[in-house]
Design brief:
There is one protein chain. The protein is an alpha/beta fold and 110 residues long. It has one domain (9-18, 25-108). It is built from four helices and three strands. The chain has helices at residues 9-21, 46-62, 80-84, 97-108; strands spanning 28-34, 65-71, 88-90. Strands 1-2-3 form a three-stranded parallel beta sheet. Helix 1 runs parallel beside helix 2 (46-62). The longest helix has 17 residues, at 46-62.
Length: 110
């Protein structure tokens, strides 16, 4: 995998939440799978994108949508806690994703 162009994570989460809000369910989970931190080719302040995504997580929580991030970036510990608190897992070897993802999903949906 290789990153390219923009990862407007906060905007994407808000967009997906629009569709999740319309669904009838006792519990709603938004599982975010990413290869790295939020980025945008037009914005130079990386902190602004982290804060925007953190705000999106808070907004979704207020809407009753639980967010959880699976991050494939081995350096994710530098920023992912700022965004998701303790609602994340780092899988820094993509080869282990098929093994880890079902286990993770089961633990989140119990």
């Amino acid at each position: 995998m290789e990153a390219g162009y923009s990862t407007r994570m906060g905007a994407a989460m808000r967009h997906a939440a629009h569709y999740l809000e319309a669904r009838k369910a006792d519990k709603k989970l938004m599982l975010i799978l990413t290869d790295g931190e939020p980025s945008n080719i037009d914005i130079t302040d990386e902190r602004m994108l982290i804060e925007d995504t953190r705000k999106a997580v808070q907004e979704l929580d207020q809407q009753g949508i639980y967010t959880y991030c699976v991050n494939l970036d081995p350096h994710a510990d530098e920023y992912v806690t700022d965004i998701f608190g303790n609602q994340y897992a780092v899988i820094d070897n993509i080869q282990r994703l098929p093994e880890k993802l079902p286990q993770l999903f089961l633990s989140l949906t119990k």
